[in-house]
């Protein structure tokens, strides 16, 4: 009769034998890895994470307890990598790679970025290595997310929102790249240092300041210089809008009329219509 010890040794030998190992099935990972890549302004953002599924379970307040540090995914820690400095949730963040952790709550989440990026799950996490923490609101998602999902959305010029989505929960926080600093520095260097006296440069600089709602007085000076060098209909149109923003509606109407006339000669009827619409609007404010 075989002893229990002998039977145990036989089972162990079977489990580690090459024949048994070769017989194992190759199955999909329960929490498959995913990578999100997005350029925001001039900054390349990469997020590497794993995507666990709900599979009928209660997620937040159940599988993921409230008030406890969560790896924000599965398997290895979620890693966020940035090629340039950014502002995250209103706080400056240098370029580099960071592990992303969260502390979910019913109404609010704490988001944690940590400099240790080699851990599996929470392994190696030390609050001493926290780079930043901030609190964001937890909302209901517009649909049910079976798999944990990280998205980059609402991308407008140099900013976007990062979304953490799972089950019926949505958490969002903003990211702003340093594109504005770089563009502003180039504008000032080319105009003030290199002294490039080109109408196209003045127009682009004024348009950028107009769109970003930066220093209307400076933008108007650049637009006016562009018009002085080349009274093109689009240059005049921008000058008119900047004059209106500065509160000088009389001069804005004059510039818009000149823009409409120049556009009509070049058969840009859309600009004619747009200028006439603005003139009618500004005349009411005189």
Automatic annotation (TrEMBL):
<dbReference type="InterPro" id="IPR021314">
    <property type="entry name" value="DUF2911"/>
</dbReference>
<feature type="signal peptide">
    <location>
        <begin position="1"/>
        <end position="23"/>
    </location>
</feature>
<dbReference type="InterPro" id="IPR011990">
    <property type="entry name" value="TPR-like_helical_dom_sf"/>
</dbReference>
<dbReference type="Pfam" id="PF11138">
    <property type="entry name" value="DUF2911"/>
</dbReference>
<protein>
    <submittedName>
        <fullName>DUF2911 domain-containing protein</fullName>
    </submittedName>
</protein>
<keyword id="KW-0732">Signal</keyword>
